[in-house]
TrEMBL record:
Lineage, uppermost ranks: Bacteria, Bacillati, Actinomycetota, Actinomycetes, Kitasatosporales
Stated name of the protein: Ribulose-phosphate 3-epimerase
Catalysed transformations (reactions): D-ribulose 5-phosphate = D-xylulose 5-phosphate
Residues that hold substrate according to the record: S8, H64, G140, F141, G142, G143, D173, G174, G175, G195, S196
Taxonomy, superkingdom: Bacteria
Family: Belongs to the ribulose-phosphate 3-epimerase family.
EC number: 5.1.3.1
């Protein structure tokens, strides 16, 4: 199972996004948080910025849509250049249809769960997905403290993935840092979104490498992702 580090552009300097994207080009993906001030109480960026970021970096874009009506908007992010699009289970009206549409357009389809949303009701949907995102903070703002009570949920999600023999990626997002990433890896996560832990560091690229090393140390046998993630299933 490959291990990946995805810096979150939410914690970057928005006045110089192109430079900030290039500062972490050793990362596996660039995580882009899209918020609409309805599904979550914050407003960030949208399709035009995603399209511009895609032209500014060779790092593939991992778009996390914290928005209402993802069934309508998610396909547009694929068209804008996202290699992975994550919609929230709590917001999608037809998650299977949406996942299939995202995949048909050429991107990886991912489903996110807020901290209070259990994974078990969505067990039958897992074969339709390429990744599951377990939020380890309440979505909406960066810089929050990691919720340790999410570790059993990460373990349960990994159990269900293994139960069905799926090659699903398991992503965690929220409070991931040098002090928490090992616990996430031990619980079964293999894709780690880190915002302030990367962009708050003096050397963001070095911070990515250090986080990767910590996660690798926690789980012997894991390796760095080497294949082009946007095409891998």
């Amino acid at each position: 199972m490959a291990l990946q580090i995805n810096p979150s552009i939410l914690s970057a300097d928005f006045s110089r996004l192109a430079e900030e994207a290039k500062a972490v080009e050793g990362a596996d993906w660039l995580h882009v948080d899209v918020m609409d001030n309805h599904f979550v109480p914050n407003l960030t960026l949208g399709v035009p910025v995603v399209e511009a970021l895609g032209k500014a970096t060779d790092t593939p874009l991992d778009c996390h849509l914290m928005i209402e009506d993802p069934d309508r908007w998610a396909p547009q992010y694929v068209e804008a250049g996202a290699g992975s699009v994550t919609f929230h289970a709590e917001a999608a009206a037809a998650p299977v249809r949406l996942a299939r549409e995202i995949r048909a357009k050429g991107a990886r389809a991912s489903m996110a769960l807020k901290p209070a949303t259990p994974i078990d009701p969505y067990e039958d949907l897992l074969p339709e997905l390429d990744m599951v995102l377990v939020m380890t903070v309440e979505p909406g703002f960066g810089g929050q403290a990691f919720l340790d009570i999410m570790l059993p949920k990460i373990r349960r999600t990994r159990e269900l993935i293994s139960k069905h023999g799926l090659e699903l990626w398991l992503q965690v997002d929220g409070g991931v840092s040098a002090s928490t990433i090992e616990r996430c890896a031990e619980a079964g996560a293999d894709v780690f979104v880190a915002g302030s832990a990367v962009y708050g560091a003096e050397d963001p690229a070095k911070a990515v490498r250090e986080l990767r090393d910590l996660a690798l140390q926690a789980i012997p046998g894991r390796r760095r992702a080497e294949d082009g993630p946007a095409t891998a299933r």
